Each structure stands twice: as C-alpha cells, then as structure tokens.
Task: structure prediction
Amino acid sequence: MRRKIDIFSAAVGLVLVLETRADLLDRVNDALSIRDPQNRFQLQLSGLIDFEGYFIDQRAPALIETDDSFLFNPRVSLFLDAQFAQHLYFFAQARLDRGFDPSDQGAQVRLDEYFLRYTPLEHPWISFQVGKFATVVGNWTSRHFSWDNPFINAPLPYEHVTGIWDSAAPYDVGTLLYWGHVGKYDSGDYSDKYLRLPIIWGPSYASGFAVLGTIDKFDYAVEVKNSALASRPESWDITNVGFENPTVSSRVGFRPNEMWNFGFSTSAGPYLLSQAAATLTPRREIDDYRELVLGQDVSFAWHHWQVWAEFYETRFEVPRIGNADIFAYYLETKYKFTPQLFGALRWNQQLFATVPDAGARGQWGNDTWRVDAAVGYRFTNYLQGKLQYSFTHEDIEIQQGEQLIAAQLTVKF
Result:
C-alpha cells in the first residue's frame, strides 16, 4: 500500500514539474505535426498521459478489477490523425495501460481504435467509415476521453454489470436470478464479475463499417459491427469475433440551435459468443437471442453550464426464459466557476424488470442508483487534474463497495 502511494505521489510531482514547462509541451506539439503547405496532407500525433488513483470501499464497483483498497492505474494513449485533401481521414488510437478497464494486471499495449473515413462530396452530407471505432449510439462517446470527460469514470449504463453472460446461457430462471442478484441470494461473491455484461461496455470499440453525415440541423449515423453494444473488449477485434452475427446500430440527431442537441438511438444484435452455443436449447442458434436497445439523449449548453442526459430501454432475449428488460439513465451537469476550475454532478439509476419465476414474477437484478461528484482544474492547456467521489446503493440488505474516491492527473500533448 505504501509503495503504491509513493508511486502516485511521484507521478503528481512529475506532473507539477510539467506545469511549469508549458513551453516545452508547445514545442513537442509542434514537432509532432506535419502539414503540407498546400493543405493537401496533414498529420498530427498527439496523446494523453493519465495518472489515476482509486480508493475503493470493497468490493470494487463497476468494471474495476482489484481486491485491494487502493489501485494505481496509469495510462498512455497515443492518437494519430491524418487528413488527405478534403476527402480522406484516418484515425488510430493505441494504449499502454493495465487493461482496458482499471485493474491491477500487468502492463499491456493495444490498438484500441482505427478507422478510415471517406467523404466524397465537398459538404459533410455523407461519409463512409470502416475499421474499429466507438459506437455512434448516444452522446457520451463523444466526450469519453479523460481530457473531455468531467468525471473519471463512465455513466452507470456504460459500466454497471448485470446478470447477463455472453459465454453461456442460464440453465433456468433460477440461474439468471443467481447471476443477477449478487449479494441478495448469496454471500456477495463477485468472483465471476468479468463474465457479466453491462448495457454498453464503455465506448464499444467494435469492428465494422458506418455511414454518417450532417444535413442542415440533422445528424445521422448507421453502423454494422461484429459485436453487440454489451460485448466485452476481447470481442471487438475482428480476428476474435467475426461477422457471422452482426449488430446494427443507429442514431439520428437534431440541433435546433447552438444550445440544444437531441438524439434517438437504436441497436439490435446477438450478444452471446459462439462458445455459448452448447448451452442453448435444441435447434436454436446464437443469432436467435439479441440485445435490443432504444436510447434517447439530450445535451444543453448555456454560458457556464453544460448538461447531458441519456435514457436507455434495453432488452436481452434470454434462452429458456424470455425477455429480460432494463431501464437505465443518467443526468449530468458541469459548471465552469472560472476558465480553469469546474465542478460536475451526475445522478445515475438502473432499474430491472421482472421475469417468470415459479408461477410468479421476480425481478432479475438489483435496482441500483449512484451519485457522482467531481471537481476539476485545468492548470494549463496541457495539464488537468480531477478529484471525484461516488456513492452507490443497490437494492440489497448488506451493502458492499458503496464508496469510491478517485483522483486523476492528465498530461495532454
């Protein structure tokens, strides 16, 4: 524990030194940019260095993987932007960290995102995109990087696990209730947490192609990808999960003015992996059971205020049981006290419907609410710090892992 705190303190000291050398980061940013004088080609290499610390009231909440009360989770993200004339754009993101989600694993390097976008016209009315990229559903993915996110973690629909597995179907309704009611029907064992799926797993960098564009005050996007929104990071690569069971997602947005942005999203696709085929009922296949999502989102900006909200109605079609429905939403606001200092508050809630249970109906998961509060300070154009407190409450008698304190320092270059 002492060693981990010393490491985090050293990271704080390093970042504070960088704060006094903003001119150095200016020169680094210029050195990582290549531009053709005739604007036919430009390339920009940039990145984020995150030093995160989590003080955890066990058990670890959401997608955090550790049995310790403190987790140090550093991360380096590198971004490559390349623009060819006005028609071709390429983007790639590579990461060095301890796992896609915060964990106490060893270091690993991944190529999380890459795509090529072609815009055939002079106007952004239509574009074609192919590769591995964040989902078009909702409005959180557009601000999910640490520099843009007012918080350190994701909203509840993007990280709160349910009783749905992708590796196996439940044998009966009792199995689903056991998987979904951790802490209510058992002693609270969460050793199988990573087998469970949220509604949307973070930004959902699944592989596929998309058609998107902007026409006047309307935005639209349709994507076809190899995995469902709930799928885990290992399922996003086309080499791990092919296109046998694709997911189709879409979003239509309307911007009546500069303050408001409204969106409506849909998604439908199989959530079970091929290895789950042996646990299905006879003459049934993987693509017979889908995750169905309807989403509504809104954002608002006025002076020092920014407000975001998303609402998700989700249905998992479960073998031998039927439909397992969830309603989840969050309301988030950010206020800039000064050009450098901001505060943010977020209310999250996830509610479970009922499924048939021995002639009656039983709720298939623990209703959950969570409140997140954060304060952030942007020291320079390249340095930002955030501190967050979260309190989670589940509909169970004995609460575990209610409180979380997190700190994050981000260097941008």
User: Anything to note?
Assistant: Residues 19 and 76 are 18 Å apart (CA to CA). The first helix runs from residue 2 to 19. The longest strand covers residues 41-56. Helices lie at 2-19, 22-31, 173-180.
